[in-house]
Amino acid sequence: MTRYNPTRSLSLVLPWPPSVNRIWRAVAGRVVLSESARKYAVTCANALPTGPVDPLRGRLQVVMTLQAPAALANRCYDIANREKHVFDVLTRQRVWVDDSQIDGLMILRGTPQGAGAAILDITELP
């Protein structure tokens, strides 16, 4: 007998994330989140849907499209170091239980526009 396992999916549009190089700072012998990283976490939390939290609990596939700010349209920028802080924020906001659930990840470079954005399509795998 084949059992039907419905999957859940979620699409999110979040602000342009800071580079991983700007997330951590050493202050008085301790490593702490930078001011820009803390502000980004608050901005993301405000951009997420509100209501009862039922985090994704299964194995996940994530497609992240990074649309840089228009100001970066003619400059080189790295897309490979921007996902970690986004994923940490999504864990703290209970979108999923932990980013270790991600089995598949694709990061795409989108067209620069406006203030920039991180567009995520998250699918719970059957």
UniProtKB/TrEMBL annotation:
Biological processes annotated in GO: DNA recombination; DNA repair
Domain of life: Bacteria
Pfam families hit by this protein: RusA
GO molecular function annotations of the record: magnesium ion binding
Gene3D superfamilies: Holliday junction resolvase RusA
InterPro entries xref list: Endonuclease_RusA-like, RusA-like_sf
Protein name: RusA family crossover junction endodeoxyribonuclease
Organism the protein comes from: Candidatus Afipia apatlaquensis
